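ARCHIVE CARD
Drawer: 12
Card no.: 0347
Subject: one protein chain, sequence and derived structure
Cross-reference: see card 0346
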Amino acid sequence: MIIHKSFVFNPFQENTYVVSSESKQCLIIDPGCYGKEDEQILENYILENELTPKAIWLTHAHIDHVLGLNFCVEKWNIPYCIHYLEVAQLKAVEVYAPNYGFHDYKPVTSNGTLLDSSEILLDNLKFSILNVPGHSPGHVAFYHSDSAQIWAGDVLFRQSIGRTDLPGGNFEILKKSILEKLFILPDNTTVYSGHGPETKIGFEKRNNPYISI
């Protein structure tokens, strides 16, 4: 069984997720916590639920999704997993972070584990890694078929889609990713996005104004 908890962090209102197994191992998806208050909220949840963080999974490396990466790596001494096409994006964050007002951003100093396979595990839970570029070149989503849940980052939102006007973005590629990787999933699949409320694949197929099938 998967236990899922979401947090809304930083001025971008980014969704950070903690996903845990019955044995209380957990992973952190897209740690956007920035500042002591955000960090304390995340730490308290993990402590109060007696969880053991095992890894950080990044859907992509835009600034709002990695503001808490260094904190989580150092706090729990855990690795982070990233697609190789996002490594340059992550390195760029420390250059442009001050332009967004994040003067206290601390870049991670360790190298990430590259997401170079089609599956990844948390304890005995198996997730499929879906390559879904368009918002960002190396964007991925984490799909757990047994529970019909997917953590999709900034690809698909409730009745919206990810931006394609950022470096590496491309609308046609994003549309292809959604149609060929996400919309083929069962309609009852719950989508946890990088911003905003959760949604369902079936609902988006019927109601998303940006993607028609």
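Annotation on reverse: The chain has one domain: 3-207. The mean pLDDT is 96.
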